[in-house]
Give the backbone structure.
Amino acid sequence: MSACGYCHDRKGRRPCPALGGSICSPCCGEHRLTRISCPPDCPYLDTGSDYQQKRLSEQFLPVRREFYRELDESGGQKAVALFNLIEVITFSYFQGRRDGQDAEVIAALQALRRTLSPLHVPAAPMPVFAEHLRKEYETFKKQNPEQIADASDAPAVLDRIDRFVSTFSGKDFQSSRFLGGLIGYVKTHHPEIADHLKKKQEPGHIVLPGQSFMPSPRPEEHTHSPGCHHQH
């Protein structure tokens, strides 16, 4: 068995058409589509992406839950709704792409923040996803003005979201760790919402799933109510 065509250290256990030889599983999983130009028909892309997303979703779940809690405490439901909307738009846009990178999400957040700043000066044309995010936010805000953070408090919320995404993404410029975690989380924990969002939707018609998309409470956070059927 020949050595991996990427690291030249471990044994290459699967064929890699991009390298013209074999590649080890760790290098295939870590470097596909970022440092390795994989052809679209490579059979390992879909299976590898699904596995990676599921693995990242379990890392994403607890930090996302904690971020939601902090965001709710500091900015209330309007701040939470803004992050929820960004998650929905991001999932809908990137879930069918193999080449999406966290840098696109971060750039879009920063562009939306500049747009909402009172000192905003029009600059060069926005990247594609940044423009898409701006339009979806403005449409949702126009249709639901009382539900989501507006220009007075959205910039501060966007700064917090930017830090959250950047921290989870890590320091690799080509990282897709946040996208993998978010997409894997929605597919794993909210499959019905994932199926709904995978359907093509008209621009400006993103609908927030509401509480069903919020983090589920920890088991110990259950509150017994008059209608609760638990036995004491």
Summary: Helices lie at 25-31, 44-94, 102-116, 128-143, 154-169, 177-189, 191-198.
